[in-house]
Amino acid sequence: MGSGALFGAIIGVGVQFYSNAVRKLPLWQSPWEHVLYAGIGAYAGTKLVEYTDRTAAEVDEMIKLRAEKNKVLDRGAAVPPLQ
């Protein structure tokens, strides 16, 4: 279990505890809901880590392509670089 999934599971269980506390119910009234929210939180945490990794890779690729484009344009092309 990755750190994102663990963090998401903790947040999911915390949301269920908070929900029960606000409604002034016993914290462990429906234990299956804690498992459900932990699973949902773990899934969301995993997807969030995947999204951030994918986005970082895409940004790095865009920066690399932009740098290559600027090198080509600096060699005397008709269109100057944007910056």
Largest sheet data: none
Proportion of residues in extended strands? under 5%
Tally of helical runs: 2
Number of domains: 1
Q: CA-to-CA gap between the ends?
A: 44 Å
List the defining traits of the structure above.
83 residues; rod-shaped; mainly alpha
Q: Would you write up a description of this structure?
A:
The chain has one domain. The two termini are 44 Å apart. 77% of the residues lie in helices and 0% in strands. Helix 1 (3-22) packs across helix 2 (31-74). It is mostly helical and 83 residues long. The model has no long low-confidence stretch (mean pLDDT 84). It contains two helices and no strands. The longest helix has 44 residues, at 31-74.
Short description:
With 83 residues, the protein is mainly α. It is 77% helix and 0% strand.
Topology:
Layout: H1 3-22, H2 31-74
